[in-house]
Structure formats: structure tokens, C-alpha cells
């Protein structure tokens, strides 16, 4: 009778497992415990061979949180949670430079991407997180990254800013040249322009004006007492009137004549 009872109990429990599909694991465990405690006693009393009950295998499914028993929920709550490999990494998207170096030396940084000017970088940690670091002037940083196997790249910059800078570099010289040209034209169009005083094209020119003296009727025949000066001035005047005769001989027009003498000797005349 004990053997028969154990067989009936196993069959009932297996049938119950089919109806309660989500609690199959716990039911199978209870059935196995009952069978293991009853079967040895039946074998000892009846001394008859015992055939184990057929076990119907069913694929267990993951129980939802709402259908879990209090015992299994307590196991989940008390089970130790695995520690994240990146628990020692700083939090936030902005790291300090010292924190960045410590993470690199521990092998927690996978790759870095420097900005175009090298003043900052964006890192990617081994867990996929990204952060930004302000980079000081450290000549050993590249060597440290290379020694720890960090992938290094440099940002190409914003193409829109590059185009704007290119246009600005072309436009600035054009505007500067146009401004200078406008100033020159304005200076030449007003007082001091061509033939006037103070224009930019008149730099280095004499500010004196040439005023033609009207005919006075004074000639060289009216001058006496300065024969040498008179002769030299006559040659200059003749050079101005007939330059071909003198240039054929290789002569050049003099820059001027220096008249020396006491007052009243006819220098002004």
C-alpha cells in the first residue's frame, strides 16, 4: 500500500505541474522530496521492486514578478548583485584631468577624440559611457595613452566654421583694399588732390607753388658788376631754350645757380 500511495502521489503532482505551468520548478522539487522519503520505506516493507514514476518534462518559463512566490522573491532580494566593472569610474559627463589619467592607467578608457585645437577631448569608457575632459599642456599625455592601448583620434572640426573662416580670410583683404582705395579717391577729389596740397599722392613733394612773374622788361643787359654769375645764368637760360645743343654734347641741366655777394650787387635782379 505504501508503494501504491507513493505512485498515486507522484502522478497527482505531475498532473498538477501541467496545470500550473509557471510553478513547475517548485512542484517538481516537492514531488522529488516526497518520493525520496516514501520510496525507501515501501521497499523495506514490501521487499518488491519499485518502478519509478514517469517524469513528464516541461520547458520552464521565466516567472513574471507578479506570479513569483514570496520565497523566490526573497531569494531575488537577498541574492548578491554583481558589481559593475566600471563602478570605480567617475560619474557625470565632465571629468577632471586627474580622474581621466587614473581611468586610463586602470584600462577603463577605450578611445579618446581630441578637439581640433587640442584644448579638450571626448573619451569613451569600456562600458560605453562618454565624458569630456579639459586638457592642460601635458607633453606626456600622448605617450601615456599609447602605453595603455587607448585609440587616439583628432576631430576634423565643423565644416561650416571652416567654410566661414575661408570666406572671411578672402573677404577681409578685399574690404581692406577697397577701404584704402576709397580713402585715396576721397583725398584726391577734395582739397589737396591732383595739383593741390595734402593729397596722399603728394607725399614727398614740395608744398611751394610756382608763380609766374609778369614781364618786367629787365634783361641781362641791365645787369653789371657780376659778370661770372651773369654768364652762368645766360648758359642756364640758353640750355632751357635750346636743350638739344647741350644734350648732344652730353651736358645735363643744372639743378640751380648759387648767387653769392653782398647786398645791392643785383642778386635779386
From TrEMBL:
Residues 64-74 have a biased composition (Low complexity). The chain crosses the membrane at residues 163-184. InterPro entries: P-loop_NTPase. SUPFAM superfamilies: P-loop containing nucleoside triphosphate hydrolases. Residues 53-74 are annotated as: Disordered. Keywords: Membrane, Transit peptide, Transmembrane, Transmembrane helix. One of its GO terms (cellular component) is chloroplast thylakoid membrane. One of its GO terms (biological process) is proteolysis. GO terms for molecular function: ATP-dependent peptidase activity. This is Uncharacterized protein. It comes from Gossypium harknessii.
Amino acid at each position: 500500500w505504501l508503494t501504491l500511495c507513493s505512485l498515486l502521489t507522484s502522478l497527482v503532482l505531475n498532473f498538477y505541474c501541467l496545470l500550473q505551468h509557471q510553478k513547475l520548478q517548485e512542484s517538481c522539487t516537492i514531488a522529488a522530496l516526497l518520493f525520496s522519503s516514501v520510496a525507501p520505506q515501501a521497499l523495506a516493507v514490501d521487499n518488491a521492486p519499485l518502478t519509478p514514476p514517469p517524469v513528464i518534462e516541461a520547458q520552464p518559463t521565466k516567472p513574471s514578478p507578479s506570479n513569483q512566490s514570496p520565497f523566490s522573491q526573497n531569494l531575488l532580494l537577498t541574492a548578491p548583485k554583481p558589481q559593475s566593472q566600471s563602478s570605480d569610474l567617475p560619474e557625470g559627463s565632465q571629468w577632471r584631468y586627474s580622474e581621466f589619467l587614473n581611468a586610463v592607467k586602470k584600462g577603463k578608457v577605450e578611445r579618446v577624440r581630441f578637439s581640433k585645437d587640442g584644448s579638450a577631448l571626448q573619451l569613451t569608457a569600456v562600458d560605453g559611457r562618454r565624458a569630456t575632459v579639459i586638457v592642460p599642456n601635458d607633453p606626456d599625455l600622448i605617450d601615456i595613452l599609447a602605453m595603455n592601448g587607448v585609440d587616439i583620434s583628432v576631430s576634423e572640426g565643423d565644416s561650416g566654421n571652416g567654410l566661414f573662416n575661408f570666406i572671411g580670410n578672402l573677404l577681409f583683404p578685399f574690404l581692406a583694399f577697397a577701404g584704402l582705395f576709397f580713402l585715396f579717391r576721397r583725398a584726391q577729389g577734395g582739397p589737396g588732390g591732383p595739383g593741390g596740397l595734402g593729397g596722399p599722392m603728394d607725399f614727398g613733394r614740395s608744398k611751394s607753388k610756382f608763380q609766374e612773374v609778369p614781364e618786367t622788361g629787365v634783361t641781362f643787359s641791365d645787369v653789371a658788376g657780376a659778370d661770372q654769375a651773369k654768364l652762368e645764368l645766360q648758359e642756364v637760360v640758353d640750355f632751357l631754350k635750346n636743350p638739344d645743343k647741350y644734350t648732344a654734347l652730353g651736358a645735363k641741366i643744372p639743378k640751380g645757380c648759387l648767387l653769392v655777394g653782398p647786398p645791392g650787387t643785383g642778386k635779386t635782379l
